[in-house]
């Protein structure tokens, strides 16, 4: 699974700890479908298009205001952001759920969360991009390759 899935969130940077194998393609597609469903409320709230949602699902860095705000809404929905700051505890809780008890991966998620704990921005949409950037940079610092 990929960064956005971890973001969704998403803490989805941590999910990138395992490169997606060919036999996991179906799991990735199922995860993308789940994200599309979860994004429906944010799509409406933020005035996003299907293309904006697909960019999010496919882990494209948001480049429009609407895409950034869609990402912000998703991060808020999952407790990774409160609209003003990265939520370290929310990220760790999502990681625990997604890592299904794999303590070594949860520990990496905690390190990533600690790296990003001070990310703040009064603009919730710009904050979403700041969080994504921090999570990506921290994941790479911890040796996690985020491939699409």
Automatic annotation (TrEMBL):
Presence of the UniProt keyword Transferase in the record: no
Domain of life: Eukaryota
Endpoints of the signal sequence: 1-22
A single cellular component GO annotation: extracellular space
CDD domains, per database record: PBP_GOBP (cd23992)
An annotated Gene Ontology molecular function: odorant binding
Entry keyword annotation includes Zinc: no
Gene Ontology biological process terms from the UniProt entry: sensory perception of smell
SMART domains linked: PhBP (SM00708)
Keywords of the record: Secreted, Signal
Pfam families noted in UniProt: PBP_GOBP
Localization (cell): Secreted
Family note: Belongs to the PBP/GOBP family.
Full protein name: Uncharacterized protein
Organism whose genome encodes this protein: Anopheles funestus
């Amino acid at each position: 699974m990929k960064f956005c899935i971890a973001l969704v969130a998403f803490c989805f940077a941590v999910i990138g700890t395992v490169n997606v194998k060919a036999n996991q393609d179906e799991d990735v597609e199922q995860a993308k479908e789940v994200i599309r469903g979860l994004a429906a409320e944010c799509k409406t709230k933020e005035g996003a298009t299907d293309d904006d949602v697909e960019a999010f699902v496919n882990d494209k860095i948001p480049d429009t205001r609407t895409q950034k705000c869609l990402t912000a809404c998703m991060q808020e929905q999952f407790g990774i952001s409160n609209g003003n700051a990265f939520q370290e505890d929310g990220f760790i809780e999502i990681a625990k759920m997604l890592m299904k008890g794999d303590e070594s991966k949860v520990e990496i998620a905690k390190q990533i969360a600690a790296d990003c704990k001070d990310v703040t921005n009064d603009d919730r949409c710009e904050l979403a991009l700041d969080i994504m950037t921090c999570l990506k940079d921290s994941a790479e610092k911890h040796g996690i390759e985020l491939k699409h």
